[in-house]
Amino acid sequence: SAVISQKPSRDICQRGTSLTIQCQVDSQVTMMFWYRQQPGQSLTLIATANQGSEATYESGFVIDKFPISRPNLTFSTLTVSNMSPEDSSIYLCSADRGETQYFGPGTRLLVL
Amino acid sequence: AQSVTQPDIHITVSEGASLELRCNYSYGATPYLFWYVQSPGQGLQLLLKYFSGDTLVQGIKGFEAEFKRSQSSFNLRKPSVHWSDAAEYFCAVGAETGANNLFFGTGTRLTVIP
């Protein structure tokens, strides 16, 4: 398995600002993923982050809004830019190990 | 394309009763199947997974699931539910090439009454 931590665990932000979420894995992994879970909804994949290459974004998500960094094999960040109340969600990162995704605890974001 | 259906949005069971959560998938090849649980205010925890072999898989916390290819189903079961099992349960399907592309169902919320 993999142990994954995220920071911050929750935040309340003003519209128009940006928030960077950090994701740390306890050991090296090739692929990391970022998901959004809107209130009462299932998980939607935002992008896949591989070390040494640009993130691959899913339909409906763009780099300008959700820039991602992957500087090494244990760490990734997701920035939610120019936030609006519609960005209020839980953001989860996951890591792929043994053909299984393991998830972090999530970051609960409220945009006012 | 993969898809997952969890027909039950919300299920209520009494503590000690048995539980079955339904999951149907659509995928053209051999799927990788997963069940995750999300407790209130928590992230997702892997309960169990099926890749191949024995179609009845055992997971953590006393859960099991059975893969039925003919019915495209992967239902989750537990013989006796505990109050701490109250949570949201998500079924997910991945491509045979790995878990890189996971598709999640909409989830089933489980309420346990004393």
Characterise this structure.
The complex is a heterodimer of chains A (112) and B (114). Chain A is an all-beta fold and 112 residues long. Chain A has strands spanning 4-7, 10-13, 19-25, 31-37, 43-50, 56-57, 68-72, 75-80, 89-97, 100-103, 107-111. In chain A, the strands form 2 sheets. In chain A, strands 2, 4, 5, 6, 9, 10 and 11 form a 7-stranded mixed β-sheet that branches. A 4-stranded antiparallel β-sheet of chain A has the order 1-3-8-7, with no helix packed on it. In chain A, a hairpin with a 5-residue loop joins strand 4 (31-37) and strand 5 (43-50). Chain B is mostly beta strands and 114 residues long. Chain B is built from no helices and 12 strands. In chain B, strands 2, 5, 6, 10, 11 and 12 form a 6-stranded mixed β-sheet that branches. The radius of gyration of chain B is 13 Å and the shape is globular. The mean pLDDT of chain B is 91. At the A-B interface, strand 5, strand 9 and strand 10 of A face strand 5 and strand 6 of B.
List keywords for this structure.
heterodimer, A: 112 residues, four-stranded antiparallel β-sheet, 11 strands, B: 114 residues, mainly beta, 52% strand, globular
Brief summary:
The complex is a heterodimer of chains A (112) and B (114). Helix content of chain A is 0%, strand content 54%.
